[in-house]
Design goal:
The chain has 445 residues and is an alpha+beta fold. 35% of the residues lie in helices and 20% in strands. The strands form four sheets. It has a five-stranded antiparallel beta sheet with strand order 2-1-9-8-7, sandwiched between helices. InterPro entries: Beta-lactam/transpept-like, Peptidase_S11, Peptidase_S11_N, SPOR-like_dom, SPOR-like_sf. Belongs to the peptidase S11 family. This is D-alanyl-D-alanine carboxypeptidase. Keywords: Carboxypeptidase, Cell shape, Cell wall biogenesis/degradation, Hydrolase, Peptidoglycan synthesis, Protease, Signal.
């Protein structure tokens, strides 16, 4: 099967500018092949891999069970095909929703899950982006749970490989769903869109995807003869061409994969399921900077081991601190309604009122936030204490406050501005963290 599909395949990038691909040894993290692996692409229904990741996380956290009923809102029921066709007000189980995503790639089921777990589709999209950052997917932004067209929803082949590895490593007890060839829903027998299951030796999932803008996408997991890889093909010109290219990559690079012991490649970050709005909003700003993954050569190792367990614990502590301090993000995510082109994680809950002393940073510049306080005087005092204590990069920084409202109460962001770019803001924030001062870098409103 592999040999037949592999015939006549030259470099797909030469004929198809949408193409991107990568093959990663899932035992060691070594990149065996890559082409345009860091170029932005539309994920299409590969998006549902993250929807399923958060669903599995909710199952393990006891927030839902496989038999929990998921009710379809009018919004979910109105999603375009492919879909289950469940009417508004009707429900299915979590397990049925999982199977619908894995096989039929049902958009209505994805939205219903998102609304149940996140409170709203916008909240859940913010949770997805936050989890992507925790997993090291530095070039991925989610705006919805299904992958239907949204110009701002982007990813890369490398990020999708990370997510595929994370699903295998973190949820071995749920991973069997990705091998489902078909399932019954009512009187219907629903087959899996992944045509390599059962056709190519060792393929056990994971997910297909297609939109006109994205082309034909596929993430495949292969485990056979003591070797294990995760491969990604994005931007295929047809389902057949995509499958052919994937089969070709498996045939060529699986024999080069290690037969040694499995390594823990991606540590799990803090759970971002409950309370969804608080954690989702804070998580995107609470994690330390993850260095961008270099394009690299196929002989290099995918640096998925960068998250040590100690760092994961530190992230949990920081997450709790930021959730408690920066309540503006709760309001931001809660009030966002998935407006195209606006990331809920970065949306202000109300127009910021900037104090006259100290002066504010200009809109569009990078700033560091160190706290949120109930009064302006406390926020200003905290800023002055930080400036005296730290010095260095903060010596010439511009301290300022911003007012915001949440549930009828007034709070004040304590921020430092005056940073030339993202790199300098992140660098200053990293130095603060070394001194046990929690912070995050963001764009000024």
């Amino acid at each position: 099967m592999i040999a037949a599909l592999a015939l006549s395949l030259a470099s797909p990038a030469m004929a198809n500018p949408k193409y991107a691909g990568i093959v990663v040894d899932a035992k060691t993290g070594k990149v065996l092949y890559e082409e345009n692996a860091d170029s932005p692409r539309f994920p299409a229904s590969l998006t549902k891999m993250m929807t399923l990741y958060l669903t599995f996380e909710a199952l393990d956290a006891g927030k839902v069970t496989k038999n929990t009923r998921i009710t379809f809102s009018k919004n979910a029921a109105a999603e375009p095909p492919t879909k289950l066709g469940v009417g508004a007000g009707n429900s299915i189980t979590v397990e049925q929703a999982i199977l619908a995503l894995v096989t039929k790639s049902a958009n209505d089921a994805a939205t219903a899950l998102a609304e149940h777990l996140g409170g709203s589709e916008a909240n859940f999209a913010a949770m997805m982006t936050a989890k992507a950052r925790q997993l090291g997917m530095t070039r991925t932004v989610f705006r919805n749970a299904h992958g239907l067209p949204n110009d701002a929803q982007k990813t890369t082949a490398r990020d999708m490989a990370r997510l595929g590895i994370a699903l295998r490593e973190h949820f071995p007890h749920h991973y069997h769903y990705f091998s489902t060839r078909e399932f019954r829903f009512g009187k219907h027998r629903i087959g899996n869109h992944n045509r390599l299951l059962g056709a190519v030796k060792g393929v056990d999932g994971i997910k297909t995807g297609f939109t006109r803008a994205a082309g034909y996408n596929l993430v495949s997991s292969v485990q056979t003869d003591g070797r294990s890889i995760v491969a990604v093909v994005m931007g295929g010109s047809s389902a057949r061409a995509r499958d052919q290219q994937m089969a070709n990559l498996i045939s060529r690079y699986l024999p080069k994969a290690s037969t040694g012991r499995d390594q823990q490649l991606i540590a799990r970050g803090p759970v971002v399921i409950q309370p969804s709005a608080q954690v989702a909003s804070a998580a995107a700003h609470s994690l330390p900077k993850i260095a961008p993954i270099p394009a690299g050569r196929p002989s290099e190792v995918l640096p998925v081991t960068a998250y040590a367990q100690e760092q994961a614990k530190a992230d949990e502590d920081m997450l709790a601190r930021i959730v408690a301090q920066d309540v503006v993000r709760v309001a931001a995510v809660t009030e966002a309604k998935a407006t195209d082109g606006v990331d809920p994680v970065h949306t202000a809950s109300a127009p910021a009122q900037v104090s006259s002393q100290p002066t504010s940073s200009a809109s569009g510049q990078w700033v560091i936030q160190v706290a949120s306080m109930p009064t302006k005087s406390e926020a200003l005092r905290f800023l002055e204490e930080m400036k005296e204590r730290v010095g260095g990069e903060l010596a010439h920084a511009n301290p300022f406050t911003e007012v915001f409202q949440h549930k009828g109460k007034t709070f004040h962001r304590a921020r430092f501005g005056g940073f030339e770019d993202k790199v300098s803001a992140w660098s200053a924030c990293e130095n603060l963290k070394k001194q046990k001062i929690q912070c995050f870098a963001t764009m000024a409103n």
